[in-house]
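Reopening: Phosphoribosyltransferase still failing for me.
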Amino acid sequence: MKGQRTERLIRTVCRFLTTPSRQISLTALSNDFGVSKTVISDDVVLIDSALTQEGLGGIQVDRGRTGGASFIPSMSENVKGQLFLEIKDLLSQEDRILPGGLIYYSDILFNPYYASRLGLIMATYFQATKPDIVMTTEVKGIPLGLFTAHALGVPLAVCRFRNRPSDGSAVAVHFPTKTGEVRAMYMGTKQLERGSRVLIVDDFMRGGSTAAGMLLVAKEFGAEVCGIGVFLASAEPEIKAVSDYTALFSLKSMGKSTPEVAF
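Support: Ran it again with your exact input. Result attached.
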């Protein structure tokens, strides 16, 4: 089905953007569009240039026997900075302060416009670690975890705070919180394969106990944690249960009227 180049380019871009970090066969594209691989290769070069200029990432071509190409998300500093400023303004609004030193942000993480872009940024930070799976906890961590997993081209595993029959058999770990309470966390045995490389993504970190719990889950499965990414981390307490993590935003303090947020 040979068509005009403009149509072919648009359709090829659609395939790359809907399957990020997954290889697409150039031979298959050549056969689908009825053109030579040389023509497809020229298309890929043009698409790579356009995506790079948009600050979204680029196309990585495998010159080996497979002859495939992948869209690798990598948000530019300029595009990231504009988004961060927009989200910082939202987080700094007066009505976001909640009792107990908490801040309201559910409307941001459950908005696909923001969550998809934040997932792209998180994937940009951890692309080089080559995770096999992203792990998060219910509930607010799920949107960011899912969009991060999508950008990385890997599945998402969700830790739950109570076991559900629909999850099948599960592994349970117990972890202490900063208040001294001991909580349970469950991971279905079908969700996480032993020996996997795991990227932990969480929505909020205060003392780091939830992230520490996910570290214990990974340990129970014999999995290797290759990174921890957090949407918003509180500056207090300074010493947390986990020390090595990357936070997109930092909650510096809760003033009398507005939160102080930095990135």
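The mean pLDDT is 93. If you still see a failure, please send the error message rather than a screenshot.
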